[in-house]
Write a structure and sequence with these properties.
The complex is a heterotrimer. Chain A is an alpha/beta fold. Chain A has 6 helices and 7 strands, in the order H-E-E-H-E-E-E-E-H-E-H-H-H. By secondary structure, chain C is of the alpha/beta class. Classes of the chains: A alpha/beta, B alpha+beta, C alpha/beta.
């Protein structure tokens, strides 16, 4: 396994100068590339490196860094290796190339990412709505979408449980402890 | 003369559909010319909710991703978390996990027997198999404390050890099921109705199968022997002896044959687990769940469920006690949309639910 | 396949053989409910006696199905919030995480799973109150093995017992970063501990900051109401740990060591000031005089100084810290550690007049007249005497005096056989110091070892260092040689007689059980008392003193409104954290009296 991994890393790095590789001790390969490289590296992995199976496409919202990280996970049935291909895109203008001509099922994943994160895949042909219906708010899987606030606004709480107390606050009240603002700041 | 196309809404409330989803069919006479899968009837934002919960709390949502067979999701999440943290799992826990996964597979296949047969009007099979599945659920109840939502496989191992006398109970149930499977052969697989309705219907193109992301019995029904239990052996599958059956034609019949044989292999695996399971710890305890943080990074673990490859992707920011991202890869996610839309073209209206069941589509998993 | 498939038509008919079989279902459904498995996760049951209302079940519940509510008949007390969980069965998913995180093991799930009602409001259940019959039906419960609580404390690295006695090096080495994070992560943040702490420190908050690798935040939170946290982190009596929720089935969180860890990350006084970054108010013109630079006096001075008061401390000795400086041996609390904190307190503007004994170098009257308020934190400097024959022989020393000399850097010659009398922390300290001076040490204590008021860790430490403890031994006479030097101690064994009034058992001497033990020195450590000779007659008359202590109100005010008192001289618990708590209360009292009154006049 080690030799195959080394071989693949070498070939990828010689073909794609921007590929940054991370090493794992199990059957995992991991490359970070620029977003422009995505279709070509995926094509290459599939056609030349035998990564025929697309397992997953996912997106991680790094809100603090103002970036989305899109991760493609491929599987090689022949070499029994997993490869993660990841790229970072600007959170405010998230655009990525459509790859559903490489793997048909990518279409569904892209639809979901478009709806949930607002990522635009250039050339994606698919119905507008996927899981959501008549949704007008911001893409809900973005981390700045506040689920609790949305739930409180949209649904009502069944009455009858207003007498619930917080243990910490009960004790503060009883002892007269003066807990400054940092209780919230350094949340329990 | 070309007939005028009509739009037909198949679902979301329809006994022939696998759950709450809909297929919009464009039909000309009895023949489908275009199919569009419409989902969105049970989106519960589980993955968003998981970002609001800590790593352990999240695990209770997993069994709801796919109700007929929840354990592979639990297992893949647990293993992804373990990969991310580098946590060791005791050997005994691995055996128990394998057993739970295989029992879940048996349960799911029995469920599928009923569903597949009912889609053809053979309701006796459904009544039998749901009854027999209850014996498997009895095992789950004894082991995990719940029949459907087990919440049993969690990061670090499993939640509880075997209860007293559990091994005998398992063997007894396996003996019963093995005998019983012959009755199903007579009733379902030998049945002229099933044979005539299943052979040559819903054929998946062998060349396209991998490129389209087909996994599990639909892939093996095409004669391609790929199974994550063998390709990427997790837990202790590399220490167990079993074969992965394949079909030939990629039609409903081939998929049914794969499942028919696989359920026997699962029983074999369960018996081996009972024989081989070592004594010892069943759980490598995690730290206090309220303050448990995972190192920064991400991991993806995949498990072979009855419906195909189920995987879980988790990402941690290294600071928070909550997942930064938790994302399930469901087998049904691929099967129920792009593949189904393709297979339905050219099929008859009467074959829609039959094809759906044969693919193992699971709308709760599509929408999560 | 032919059009008519004979086999395929007939085979399914074999199903007819099933006609004779019994059905799967139970016979009397729905009249008889099916009995669930032995591990079934059904409705909750809570053992109300065992439950401490920590609320961990409500915290872990991802469905927000659990509320903590007061229950009739259960009063909150130290270590019990008085609240009990109530489950909304409409939201519960019976995952049982609440059971697995319950620190006491009081919460469990039962085999019962059927409840039908037309009233949707009747699904709010208080487990244990609404279903007392559940006690017999418990099926899913947590044991120490299955629980998700982390019951084992991260062991504190220490010097090895016989290595310690070679020097006065600090015995406890302190957690490193990794150990501190792991230990802090055990905390479930219930906050029950804050009630047991006399000073009500913000324990869950700072432990959480440590767990999240925010040591600076932890330091800020700690300094919010404790100006001597490093001292507390080393020698506090830590009542908080006694009520720790985790202690019910495991070892309590090492709250004291975590505080020590956080404060020790800050090396010097300047850094403390930089991190804590206290907001010091503009001087308000009020002057406060403080008698005694012990923990209570320093607390008053620090927080009043932050509030803009002009504070002056009058300290009889050459160094500040009171008993924590002169009473606690340096292997427990090194001098640099104390100096750092005193330096920081001085940096915020507190003036300390050292070597100024009130009553001798300055009169109390003068302090009283030149300040707007006076705080008296003089402690208990005078030891109790034993009252046995031969107590005044040479070589019979009071343990506090002995510790004072040692901590002052003097040498005390004890010989090689030291007898210590008493079972408190002073006795153990004196014994362990004597060991470090090279003597064989025996402690005589009138009650059993488990009755000793000293910290159990201290007792264990003493034993590890080779201190011999003779329990149930009452000294009756010290024997001396012709030069008047003590040579042996005669003591009588005692038996423990249960107290009829329900108090702790009393030691009663067994007649004729007298024994004698050789001694080159005897250290008496049976307690101390106050010394109020510095007060002029008019004050001594005016200020009410009962049983050797100042009588104070809830803001530490004595019967003279201008005089406040705290520390050992005003409370019964006699430890540093209580003294700090007294000081903190007095700060609020003095501020209320002076500033608020002043503002009132302006209006």
């Amino acid at each position: 396994m080690k030799e195959i991994k080394t071989k693949i890393i070498e070939r990828i790095k010689s073909h794609f100068q921007d590929a940054v590789e991370r090493d794992y001790d199990y059957n995992r390969l991991d490359f970070s590339v620029k977003k422009e490289t995505i279709p070509s590296i995926l094509f290459y992995l599939k056609d030349e490196m035998n990564f025929k199976h697309l397992s997953h496409i996912t997106c991680v919202d790094w809100l603090e860094e103002k970036e989305f990280e899109v991760v493609f996970i491929l599987w090689s049935y022949t070499d029994r290796l997993q490869v993660y291909v990841r790229t970072r895109i600007d959170r405010d203008h998230p655009v990525l190339d459509n790859i559903d001509m490489i793997w048909r099922q990518a279409n569904t994943y892209e639809r979901e990412l478009k709806e949930m994160y607002g990522i635009n895949f250039t050339g994606l042909e698919a119905p507008e709505e996927f899981l959501l219906e008549d949704w007008e708010g911001p893409p809900p899987m973005r981390r700045d979408f506040d689920t609790r606030e949305y739930a409180a606004r949209t649904y009502y709480t069944r009455p009858g449980r207003e007498d619930a107390q917080d243990v910490r606050e009960t004790i503060i009240k009883r002892t007269g402890e003066e807990l400054p603002d940092f209780a919230k700041k350094y949340k329990r | 003369m070309r007939e005028k196309a009509t739009t037909l809404y198949f679902g979301p409330q329809h006994p022939g559909i696998t759950g709450n989803m809909m297929v919009r069919l464009k039909v000309e006479g009895d023949t489908i010319v275009k199919a569009t899968a419409e989902v969105g009837y049970l989106h519960r934002a589980f993955e968003k909710l998981m970002e609001e919960r800590n790593w352990l709390q999240s695990f209770t949502l997993l069994c709801r991703f796919c109700v007929p067979e929840p354990d592979p999701v639990e297992e893949s999440y647990a293993r992804a978390v373990e990969m991310l943290e580098g946590r060791e799992v005791p050997e005994r826990a691995k055996y128990i996990r394998v057993m739970v996964l295989e029992l879940a597979r048996i349960g799911a296949f029995l469920f599928w027997y009923g569903a597949q047969a009912s889609s053809l009007g053979l309701h006796t099979v459904g009544q039998w198999s749901i009854g027999d599945r209850n014996y498997v659920l009895d095992l789950f109840e004894a082991l995990t404390g719940a029949r459907i939502y087990h919440m049993y496989i969690w990061p670090g191992g499993v939640r509880r050890d075997f209860p007293e006398g559990f091994e005998e109970q398992v063997i007894k149930t396996m003996d019963y099921l093995e005998k019983r499977l012959n009755d199903y052969d007579d009733l379902l697989f030998e049945s002229a109705i099933f044979q005539k309705r299943a052979k040559g219907i819903g054929i998946i193109n062998k060349e396209k199968a991998i490129e389209w992301g087909v996994v599990g019995p639909p892939l093996r029904g095409c004669g391609i022997r790929h199974d994550m239990r063998i390709d990427d052996p997790y837990e202790v599958y590399d220490k167990l002896d079993f074969i992965v059956p394949t079909g030939e034609n990629g039609d409903i019949w081939s998929r049914a044959q794969v499942r028919r044989q696989e359920i026997r292999q699962s029983i074999r695996i369960v018996r081996q687990v009972i024989d081989k399971i070592p004594k010892g710890e069943y759980y490598n305890k995690i730290p206090n769940p309220q303050k448990w943080t995972l190192p920064k990074g991400d991991a993806y673990a995949h498990t072979e469920a009855a419906r195909g490859e189920v995987g879980f992707f988790v990402a941690s920011d290294g600071v928070s006690t909550h997942p930064r991202r938790a994302h399930e890869r469901g087998a049904a996610y691929v099967h129920a949309i792009t593949l189904l839309e393709d297979l339905l073209v050219g099929a008859n209206i009467a074959d829609v639910s039959e094809i759906m069941f044969s693919l193992g589509t699971c709308p709760p998993e599509v929408e999560r | 396949m032919s059009f008519f498939d004979l086999k395929g038509t007939l085979k399914p008919l074999t199903a007819l053989k099933q006609f004779g079989r019994k059905p799967h279902t139970l016979k009397d459904v729905p009249y008889v409910t099916r009995e669930a498995a032995d591990r079934y996760r059904g409705f909750h049951y809570n053992d109300l006696e065992q439950c401490i209302g920590c609320g961990n079940c409500a915290t872990i519940c991802q469905n927000q199905a659990i509320d903590m509510v007061p229950v009739e008949g259960i009063e909150g007390k130290k270590g019990d919030s008085g609240l009990r969980p109530r489950v909304d069965n409409g939201r519960c998913c019976w995952c049982g995480l609440c059971v697995d995180v319950c620190p006491t093991g009081s919460l469990s799930l039962t085999k019962d799973y059927l409840y039908v009602s037309e009233d949707p409001n009747s699904f709010l259940w208080m487990p244990g109150v609404d279903n007392p019959q559940g006690k017999e039906r418990i099926s899913f419960f947590s044991t120490e093995e299955t629980s998700l609580n982390d019951f084992a404390r991260i062991p504190m690295p220490e010097l090895e017992g016989m290595e310690r006695v070679k020097s006065f090096a600090e015995v406890v080495l302190g957690y490193n970063e990794e150990q501190a994070r792991a230990e802090a992560s055990r905390c479930i943040s219930c906050g029950l501990c804050t009630e047991a702490c006399p000073e009500h420190m913000h324990i869950p908050e700072y432990i959480n900051a440590i767990a999240r690798a925010n040591d600076a935040d932890a330091v800020r939170i700690i300094y919010d109401n404790n100006p001597l946290p490093e001292m507390c982190g080393k020698v506090c009596t830590r009542r908080c740990e006694d009520v720790c929720a985790i202690a019910h089935r495991g070892e309590p969180i090492a709250i004291r060591w975590l505080k020590r860890y956080a404060t020790e990350t800050v090396d010097n006084a300047d850094l403390i000031k930089e991190i804590v970054n206290p907001e010091i108010k503009e001087p308000n013109g009020f002057k406060v005089g403080i008698v005694g630079a012990g923990p209570s006096g320093l607390t008053v001075a620090y927080y009043l100084a932050l509030r803009g008061f002009d504070c002056t401390i009058y300290e009889a000795h050459a160094k500040a810290g009171g008993m924590t400086m002169y009473g606690i041996p340096k292997y427990r609390f090194p001098e640099e550690s104390l100096d750092k904190q005193i330096e920081y307190i001085e940096k915020v503007g507190v003036k300390i007049n050292f070597n100024t004994k009130v009553g001798k170098d300055i009169s109390f009257r003068e302090i009283y007249d030149t300040h707007d308020a006076v705080f008296v934190g003089v402690g208990f400097p005078k030891p109790w005497t034993l009252g046995v024959e031969g107590e005044n022989l040479k070589g019979s020393i009071q343990a506090v005096n002995f510790l004072y000399e040692i901590n002052n850097g003097k040498r005390v010659d004890l010989g090689d056989k030291v007898i210590v009398i008493g079972g408190g922390n002073v006795a153990i300290d004196a014994a362990r110091v004597s060991r470090r001076l090279g003597a064989d040490v025996t402690i005589l204590y009138r009650r059993r070892v488990q009755d000793m008021p000293a910290d159990w860790e201290e007792i264990e430490g003493a034993e590890e260092e080779g201190v011999h403890i003779v329990p149930q031994a009452i000294p009756v006479k010290f024997h001396g040689d012709e030069k008047g030097h003590v040579i042996s101690v005669e003591y009588v064994m005692a038996e423990m007689v249960p107290d009829e009034r329900g108090g702790r058992p009393k030691p009663v001497p067994i007649e004729g059980s007298n024994k004698t033990i050789e001694a080159t020195a005897v250290l008496g450590a049976i307690g101390q008392q106050g010394d109020y000779s510095f007060l002029e007659e008019e004050f001594a008359e005016k200020i009410k003193i009962e049983r050797g202590r100042f009588v104070v109100n809830e803001i530490q005010q004595t019967s003279d409104p201008k005089i406040f008192a705290g520390g050992d001289a005003a409370n019964r618990t006699a430890d540093a954290i209580s003294a700090i708590a007294d000081g903190y209360r007095a700060v609020k009292g003095i501020e209320a009296m002076l500033v608020k009154k002043d503002e009132g006049n302006v209006d």
